Amino acid sequence: MRRCFYFLLFTFYFSPKIHAQIIENAGDYMTAMTNAQTEMDQKYMVYISASAHSRRAKKIEKLRTQALESIDNAKYKTMGLPKYKGDNSLRQASIDYIQFCYRIFNEDYSKIVNMEEIAEQSVDQMQAYLLLEEKASEKLQEASENLSKAEKQFAGKYGVNLVDTKSELTDKMGTAGMVNNYCDRIYILFFKCNWEDGELFHALNGHKLNDAEQARNSLIAFSKEGLESLKLDSLRTFQGNPALAAGCREALLFYGAMAQNDIPKLTDFYLKEENFDKIKKSLEAKGNNKTKEDVDQYNKAVKDINYSVNNFNQLNQELNKRRQEVAQDWEKAEKTFRDDVIPYYKAK
Question: What is the pTM of this model?
Answer without folding.
Answer: 0.80
